[in-house]
Amino acid sequence: MQDETELREKTSGKSEETESLVPNQMKWDFILVCDKHKPGSKKDKREEFLNKLKSKGFTIKKIEDKKLFYGVHAPSEIFQKYQNLLKKSDSEFQNHDTKEVTIPTRIRIVNFILQNTEISSEETLRKLIKAKVFEAAFPLHEQEGLRKLLKENWARWRKILKKQSIEEIRNYFGEKVALYFVWLGWYTRILFPAAVLGLLVFLYGIFHFDSSQVSKEICEANTTIMCPLCDQKCPFWQLSDTCTYAKVTHLFDNEGTILFAVLMALWATVFLELWKRSRAEVVSDWELYGWDEDEEELALQLINNPEHTLKEYEHSYIRSTILLLLVLLMITVLIGIAHALVIYRVVATVVFTQSDFEFIRERASTVAVITGAVLHYITIVVMTKVNRRVALFLCDLEKPRTFSERENIFAVKIFTFQFFTYFSSLIYIAFFLGRINGRPGNYVRVAGKWRLEECHPSGCITDLFIQMAIIMTLKQTLNNFVEYLTPWLRLWFQKSLANPKDKDNVHMEKGPEDSCKEQWLKNYQLNEVNVFSLFDEFLEMMIQYSFTTIFVAAFPLAPLMAFINNLFEVRLDAIKMVQLQRRIVPRKANDIGIWLQVLEAIGILAVIGNGLVIAITSDFIPKQVYKYTYSPCMLQNRTDINCLTGYINNSLSVFRVQDFEWQMKMPEKLPDFMRSEITECRYRDYRNSNDYNYSVQFWHVFAARLAFLILFEHVALCIKLIAAWYVPDIPQWVKNKHLKKKNENLQGKLRDHSTSV
Fold first, then answer.
1. How far apart are CA 312 and CA 292, in angstroms?
2. Whole-angstrom Cα distance, residue 653 to residue 696?
3. Contacts of 563 by beta carbon, 8 Å cutoff, 6+ apart
C-alpha cells in the first residue's frame, strides 16, 4: 500500500477525495496494467501519468495482484462537453432523459483521452506501453447483458447459418466493427451466386472430360515424339504420355470460361454497387449519414485539452518522392523473390527428372509446380511480417495527422506489398511461363545453365490453377486454423497459470473488491487486441477477394472456396472478439474507409487479369483461329468432323534433332539414350521447320489475342460502367429521408426567425 500512499500525497486534495470515495460497484471505463516497478523513472512516469488523469477529474482505483491494476473512470462532464460540442442526436445516448452516453461512445472518448494525455517528457500512453511503464490498457468486457446475448446468438459455431445481430454488435463493439460484419455478411451472401456459377463451369468441364477433341488427339498421339524437357537424362517422350494432364486442363479451359470471366467482371461491379446501397441504408438508420470524422476528432481534442495546438495537414514533395522510391524498392524486392521461385522451379524440374523414384521422375514438372506453390506460400508467411514492418516504417515517415489517416496510408502500402507478394509468381505463370523460354537449339537459360520451363502441349492454364488452388487452400485453411487455435491455446495457458488459491476459493463468498479483482484478472488473461486487429481482418478479406476475381478464369472454384471459408470466418471472428480477446476499443465510422477504393481497384484489375488469362494463358484464341482459318472445316469445307480435328498437330512445330546444341557441339559425348534413330521431335510453338522463324500462323494468333484482349476489356468495362449507372449508390428513400430532414430544419429556423422578429 506504500505505492498508493505516495500517489495520494502527490495529487491534489480534490483527487484524493475522489479516490477515497470510489464506489465499489462503479463501472470502470478502462484498466491499466503494469509491473510492480522499483523506485525509478518507470515508477515516476507511471505516477505522473495517473496524476495527469486525476487532474482531469478521472477516478482511479488500484488493485494489487501479481501485477498492479488501475481502474479508470471518467467524469460525466467530459461526455456533456462532447454532447454540447457536436450536438449529437439521441442515437448517441442510451437514456434519452438523463442523456447518459452509450458504453461504446464512452469507451471511445475515454480511449482518445488516455491515448492523447502527455506527461512532462512528451510521452503518450502508447509510448509508455512501448517503454514498459504500462503493460496494457483495455476496456472491460461486460459480465452479463449484451455480451452474454452475443455469445448465445452470434458467437457460436452452431449459429453459422443464422443472420447476424448487427444492432447488438454495434451497441457492444461500435460502428466500425459492426460495419465490418455488415460488409462481410453481404460479401458472403453475394458470393453464393458466383460460387454456383463457378461450380457449374467446373461441372461442365467434368461432363465433357472425355469428349474434348484436343484431349482425344493428345491421348491418341502415340507416334508424336516430343523434344526433351531438359538437357540431362531427359529422353524424348510421346505426347500421349500426358493424356490425363490434357483432360484435366479441359476442366478449366473450355467454352464456359469466357462467359464466366465476363459475368464475374459484372458480378464484381454489382457487388460494389449493392454494397454502397446497403451501407447507405445502415448508416442512415444509425443517423451517421452526414457524420464528419474531422469534426469528431477536433471535438475530442478540445475535450482532452482546450488549449491544444491544432495539427494541420502537411505535404512535402521531397518526402513523397523518397517514400515513392522506397515503395518501388520494396516492390522490386518482392518481384525478385518471385524470380527466385521461378529459378527454383527450373532447378527442381531438373533435379526431379534425375530422381531415382520413377513416380517423381515421370511427373517432374508437376511435382516442381506443386512444391513451388508450397514454397511460395512459405515466402508469403515470412514476407507478410516483413511487409508489415516496412509499411509501418513508411507510415511513420509520412507523418499522418490522425489515426484514421495513418490507417488509410498503412492500408494502401500493406495491400500493395501483399498484392505483389501473393501475385508476382502467379503473374509469371499466367503470362510469361513458356513464352520466354526460347526454342530447341536456342533455349533461354538461367545463369547460362538451366533452361526455363515450357508449357504443356495442352496449355499453361493448369499450372496456374495448381498454383492458385494450393495457395488459396493453404491460406484459408491454415490461416483460419492458426487464427482460432492460437488465441484459444494462449487463453487456456493463461488460465492454467492462474493462482491455485483462486481456484480453491471459487465457491467462497466474495465481497465487491474480490468481484472487481476477479473481473479485471479475467479480462487481463484474454488475448491482447492491437489497434490494427480489425484492419487485419479487412486485409485478409481483400486478398481473398483478389483471388476470387483477378484470376478466376483459371480457377472457377475460387468463389465457392471463398464462400465456404467466409461462412466460418464470420463466426470465427465473432468468437475471437466476444470470448477469446479483450474488448476491442469501439470506433465510429459511416463506411469501410479506404477499403472501398481498394475493392474498386481490384475490380478493374479483375477485368484486366481475366482478359489477359483468356487471351494469353488459355488456348481459347489459338483454337478459334485454327477452327475458323486452318481447320478441315474451312480448308476442305467438311461438315462431318469436329472443326478442331488436327489442332494439336497444327500447334506443334518440328525440330531437327541434329540442330540441338549438344548434338552440334559435342556429338561424341552424346548420352546413350540420345543415340537413337529419332531425327525429328515436336515442341509447342508456331515456327517454320526450315529456319525456325515464327510462321504466319503465329502472327495470326498474336493479332487475334490482341484483338480479343482489347474487345474483352472494353466490353467488360462498359458493362461495369452501365451496371454502376443502373444501380444507384444510394437508395432514393435514403436521399428523400435526409432531404425532408434538411427541409424541416430550415423551416424550423425560419419559424424561429419569424418569431424573434
1. 16
2. 13
3. 188, 191, 192, 194, 195
**Cβ pair 559, 191 in contact under 8 A:** yes
* Of the listed ranges 109-123, 274-288, 489-503, 532-546, the one predicted with least confidence: 489-503
Q: How far apart are CA 358 and CA 280, in angstroms?
A: 61
By the 8 A CB rule, do 310 and 294 touch? Answer: no
Q: What are phi and psi of 36, to 5 degrees?
A: -85, 90
Q: How far apart are CA 445 and CA 454, in angstroms?
A: 12
Domain range annotation of the chain? 2-139, 173-620, 732-757
* 261 in Cβ contact with 553 (< 8 Å): yes
Q: pTM of the predicted model, to two decimals?
A: 0.84
Residue with cell 511513420: 396
Instruction: At 521, list the grid cell.
Output: 484478472
Residue found under cell 503494469: 34
Give the tens place of pLDDT for each residue, 340-374: 888 888 788 777 777 777 777 667 777 887 888 88
pLDDT tens digit sequence for 105-151: 999 999 999 999 988 888 899 899 998 999 999 999 988 888 989 99
CA distance 497 to 503: 11
> How many CB atoms lie under 10 A from the CB of residue 479?
17
Give the integer Cα–Cα distance in Å for 226 and 190: 46
Q: 519 in helix, strand or coil? A: helix
Q: What would the grid cell of residue 528 be?
A: 491482447
DSSP 3-state of 595: helix
Report yes or no: 549 and 603 within 8 Å, Cβ to Cβ: yes
- Mean of pLDDT over the chain: 82
